[in-house]
Amino acid sequence: MSVVYQRVALIGLGLIASSMFWAIKRGGLAEEVTGFARTPETRATAREIGLCDRVCDTVAGAVEGADLVVLCVPVGAMGSVAAEIAPHLKPGATVTDVGSVKRAVIDAVAPHLPDGVHFVPAHPLAGTEHSGPRSGFAELFDNRWCLLVPAEGTDIEAVANLRKLWEGMGANVDEMDPEHHDLVLAVTSHTPHLIAYTMVGVADDLGRVTDSEVIKYSAAGFRDFTRIAASDPTMWRDVFLSNKEATLEILGRFTEELFALQRAIRTGDGDHLHDYFSRTRAIRRGIIEAGQDVDAPNFGRGKAQV
Ligand SMILES: NC(=O)c1ccc[n+]([C@@H]2O[C@H](COP(=O)([O-])OP(=O)(O)OC[C@H]3O[C@@H](n4cnc5c(N)ncnc54)[C@H](O)[C@@H]3O)[C@@H](O)[C@H]2O)c1
Ligand SMILES: O=C(O)C(=O)C[C@]1(C(=O)O)C=C[C@@H](O)C=C1
Q1: 16 lines ligand 1 (CB under 6 A)
Q2: Which domains does the chain have, with CATH numbers?
Q3: 90 C-alpha to center of ligand 2: Å?
Q4: Whole-prediction pTM value?
Q5: Interface TM-score (ipTM) > 0.90
Q6: How far is the CA of 233 from the centre of ligand 1 (A)?
């Protein structure tokens, strides 16, 4: 792999930024990666573990001279960080972000960026329930999707270079418009997270089943919920507040379906339950057949057995 950018600046040194740093280093994709974190503690940790070639005490120091600036902060902080970096951006630089929501981030960031700076929003569809500078690893983006969401008329070379960077970090890249992105992610990521949070909350609230029983006897499905529900509260608060409309639409559909299933259980309508579960099983099999299940043993190796 060859160098895509001379200098990349990572702002907000958590899971995604640290994974990007290790993946950029693995691929030899930048000559220098600078980093900025808000707190002295995070900067000290970054220096201790060798995260970034240069950790800066000011956002200006990290951004000055950078060809690519990546905003890796929670969605709700993107606008204020964009305002802070704006005066220090090199003319012709590209600014991107990794936020889980796109329309709200574009609206918050774009107005701050000076003319002559390219803005190419992005979203890697990869993560874990961990956060902070120690949580990243180079393989996080391997075989995962990264969605680019450039506005019409964005400089072609700026988009092509960012695509090259993500491909160099192991991702498959697609382009999408922001509204569609937010609806798709409300279905595939945001609402499922809310359901996981709720289910774990229900278990915690249920007096007749103790917390220690929940921990001891937790079956695979519920264990997955607890993993998801351990995700960063700030990140997910911001996701829901920023993708309100799409999440509320999907939640509305979800509750309708849930009520229908609840009724089928109450009335003993086994046909309804069986038909429903057959339909959902077909979706799972479709994902595996398409080779999209990154956790399945056959992922990326052609057709999986279903
Ligand atoms: N975790 C995931 O699964 C995942 C996946 C894809 C995209 N994302 C997106 O990536 C972004 C970062 O998420 P993460 O998982 O790396 O979170 P993280 O909590 O690991 O890291 C975020 C970092 O930003 C810092 N920060 C917060 N507010 C800041 C501010 N105002 N100025 C400077 N730094 C600030 C935090 O201190 C933290 O170090 C979020 O926008 C999130 O939506 C997350
Ligand atoms: O695997 C996980 O822990 C995740 O939740 C990652 C996940 C998701 O797949 O929903 C979470 C949020 C992102 O914006 C992208 C990826």
Answers
A1: yes
A2: 5-176 (3.40.50.720), 180-289 (1.10.3660.10)
A3: 32
A4: 0.93
A5: yes
A6: 11
